Structures are given as C-alpha cells and as structure tokens.
Task: structure prediction
Amino acid sequence: MTSGNSGEHEQLALSGEVRGLISGKTKIVSGASNGGGLVGGGSGEISTDDRGTWGSKVEFILSCLSFAVGLGNIWRFPYLCYQHGGGAFLIPYALNLVFTGLPLFYFELSLGQYAKSSPILLWSICPAFKGVGYSMLIIVIGIGLYYNVLNSWIIYYLGVSIISTFSQGKSWASGGNDSDLLLPWSNCNNSWNTDECVESTGLDEETLTMINMTGAHETANHVSAADEYFHRSVLQLHESPGIHQIEGLRLELAGCLLIAWLLVYFALLKGVKSLGKVVYFTALFPYFILLVLLVKGMTLPGAMDGIYFYIKPDWSKLWSVKVWADASMQIFFSLGPCWGSLITLASYNKFNNNTLRDAVIIATANCATSFFAGFVVFSFIGFMAHSLDKSIQDVTVSGPGLAFIVYPEALTLLPYSGIWSVLFFVMLLSLGLGTQFSIMETISRTIADITNLSHRVVLTIACTLMFLLGLTMTTNGGIYILTLMDNHSGTFPALVTGMVEVLVVSWIYGAERFLEDIRRMIGWCKSDWWYSAYRLYWNMMWRIATPTLLSAILVASAIDFKPLTYGGYEFPYWAGLVGWFISFVSMACIPLVFMAMVFEVTWKTPFPSIRFKGLKDALAPLPEWGNPEREFYQVVNTEEC
Result:
C-alpha cells in the first residue's frame, strides 16, 4: 500500500516535470526542477505593455506595406510579366495571390496578433515545433545581412548622383556645359574604363546587345559605360578572380554600409513607436516618386512601345509550367511570409484588430504596386530602346542589373540627368530601408523575447555584428558572397519552414480550432450569414490548398535549380556546398528541436505511460497559449454571439 502511494506520487511528480520541461518555466512539483534550456527558451509570457503597440491601425498597415513592397517589386516583377506573356501573366499571378499569398499572409497576421509574441515564443501553440521559430530567426538574419549591402550600393549611387547634380547646377549657372560633370556612368573617359567601353550614345545599329542574367550590358567586343561603372568602379570586381579570393575592402562601400546600419539603428531605437512614424515615409514616398517618374516617362519618345511590350498578352504562355511556377515564387517572396516579420509586426496590434481586412488590403496593394512599377520601368526602357535604335528585348533585364546598370543608363539620356537619378535612388532607398526596418525589428524583438534583454541592447548588438559581417560583402569580390547568400538564405528554407508552419497549426493544433480563436479575437458571431462559408473556405485553404501549392513551389524550385553563376563566372563546387549548408542550418532547427523535445519528455522517465503523456503534451498548447485573449476579455466585457 505504501509502495502504491509512493508510485502514484512519483508519477504525479514526473507529470509535473514533463510540463516544466515543455514550457521552460520553473515548475516545482514534489521536488521537480526547472526544465528550461534550448527547448524552453524563455519565460513563455510577455507583458503586452512592455512590447508596445502601434499608434494607429494606419501605422500597422503602412509597416506591412513597407515590408512587403521592396526592391523585388521594381526589378523582378516587371521583367517576369514581360517574359511570361505580358497581361496574360496576371492570370497565374492573381490566382497564386488568392490561393497561396493571401492565405499565408492572413494566417501569419492572425497567428502573431492572437499570440502577441514573436516567432519563437508563439510556439506555445505546439511546443515540439518551436524549431520553426528558430528557423525563421536564422532565415531573417541571413536576409538582413545581405539586404542592407544592397542598400549601401543605393546610398553610394545616391551620393554620386547628388554630387553630380550640384556640379551640373554650378556649371549651368556659370553658363557652361562641361561633359565631365555628367553622371560618371554616362561616358568612357574615366580611369576605370577599358578599351571595350562604349557610351550609350555610341552604340550603333550593328552592335548587338546581349544582356546576361546579372544585367551586364555586354557584347562580344563592347561593354556599356554603366556596366563598367558598376562592376569596375563601384564593386571593383575585376580585382577578384572569384569567391576563393576575397580581399581589398572597399572603404567607400564600407562607409555607405555604416550609414545604412545607422539609419536602421536610429529608426528602430524606440522599437515600434519609432518604426510606426518612419513607415509613413518609407511606405508612401516611393509612390510619389514612382508617379513622378511615370509622368516623365510617358512624355518620352518610345515610352508607349515599351508599355505595350510590357502588357501585350501572349495567351500561349499560360500552357507553360514555368510561367505558373514563377508566378507562385514571385507571390511568395514578394509578400515575405515565413520570415517571421509579419508575425512580429502583427504582435504589436490591438488584440481585436481585423486581420482579414488588413491582409486583403496589404496583399492587394503589394501586387498592384508591382504591376504599376512595371509601367514606370518599361516606359523608360522603351525610351532607351528608341534612343539607341534597338529592340526592347535587347535592353530588358531583371534583378540588380536593372537598378544599377540599365535604368541608370537610361537616365543619362535625359536632360538634367542628375536630378532624375537622385529621385530614382531615393525611391530605391526608401523601398530597401522599409524592408530592412521590418527585418531588424523581427530579429531584435525575437531575441529580446527569448533572452529577456532590452530591445535597445539587442538592437545595438545585432546592428553592430551584422555590420561587421556585412563588410565581407564590401570587398572586391563581395558580390560573390552576396549572390551566395541571396540564393540560399531565404529560398528553400522559407518554403520548407512555411509548409511546416501551416501543416502543424492546421493539422495538429487544428484549423477549426485556430479559426475559432480568430473569430473570438476579432469579435465575429457564429450566427453571421457568411460565417459558415468563410470557415469552410479557410479550413480548406490552410489544410489542403496552401500546403499543396507550397509543395509545388518547392518542387518547381528544385527542378529549376541550376549551379550558381554570376555573369560568366561559375561558382566552384565547394561554394555550392557552403550555400546548401547555409540553407540547411535554418531548416535543421525544426527536426533538431523536435528531437530534443521528444528526448526530454520521453527518455528521461522510466514510466511508459508518462512518456506517452509527455509526447502528447509536447504537441498540445501550453497553458500560456491564449493569455492575450484572457487578458483582453478581463478588461473588455463582451457578450458571446
């Protein structure tokens, strides 16, 4: 009898210990000790007062818009649209928005707002999969490292454009017209130029331009002045034979990178309070500049040819699998789910904010911005093709080459080119910083939540370390490192992480259960005439459609994968292995944390019944899941519908 009572008490003690191991909180039951560590990682609870909230709903919408509308909207979507059938491409693009982009966007906004916590701590919803949060953190750190290097290039070009504009102004004021005061990428009279350099106005009809995947404006015997400026003056790529020999820090770029990180630091110094004010500029100002550039572009000869080329539908393209795959990937990476940023931004909302409304507004505005930007880009490309007497195909390019070679080259053909260049690069900087602000807020808040350090301390350390690491990409061959990071930091890892995230919440926690959480959070009534259809639709989306489409995107990405190159340079085999290691570091967090959890809750106890219960507990929500809802309804009295 004594023995039986002793066994019962021991089982109770072990059961209490299991919950302690899962939650990471100190829980003393009959002498059980704190089971924190890798799997626990923090207190599991956050005071919403300490985290802060948005000053208004507008701040939240603008912050999400500023995050989602980035550089890719300008330099990738227009090219994809032209390449994949013009107006016809909008059909797969819109369908992927409805079935992939919007469901993920709504899913993450709702998850972050209901939990009111960052990507790691919100996994009190299913503790065994806390590795999803760690995966998101590593993904967003990798993206933040190289993204601000792109911003440093923009700052460099902006500085040169401002200097040239002032020089031009002084020259014109004195009655001069010195060609040496033009934008430095407009001519071949510079120390960095080679014998192969050809100015834009010097390209004759017989010079057949071929633009490679990096945006290099090259032929067999000629390289454009804008291309030589970017690769030989700004990056000094000719000084590096490849990624195996990275040396020679570019002090000018290092200085621009420092400026970029200082801008990020001071914009986020007060957390969500300062970010909420900055986004009024980073989210809205680019639209003003885009509108100004469009008005100017429409007045240029050849502009309508470029726009017609951009939107002319080619319905035969819809039969191509690649068109649908590219539309899916563009939607996925444009909206930016699975980086943790949407979750973090939504966690600052008031608890009963309507996330469905916000998701529809932001996702639609993001896609509309991409389409609108295409008119701006192709009006200038049409003008450039007309000025050089070339076909539009010969001057069209995607990626950084559009921003740093083709578009700047087109601007040199305009009068007062310096002014237009300043406007263009201010717009790019606003877009780039808007995304970077959200990335760094995600990193800072996530680490602050799991370490209990202050937001400001984490921000200071993170900005400093990431600046130092980013210096490797300001060397002569730094673009090789940037290309490696760009291809492996947020592609496969984000797709895998996103798929696991949706599957776990929809199938283990339960889509119906999550939809009920959202209903109570927003304050909808079950009796509303539309609610049954709404519930059925999102249940099917999150359980079946979205995971299936994410799997399809993942397979299409794997099929389309090619060995890494930059221009004519092929990355060595070992560099490819390094790239895949970068990808697997973040993805590995998911199974590693899961296995650590299973080990802690099963093999540390000799009782099989406790092992099974511990495994079930690891897949069940912790008591702190739903705390923001309970706190909200303690203050706000509402009647259940």
The longest strand covers residues 197-198.
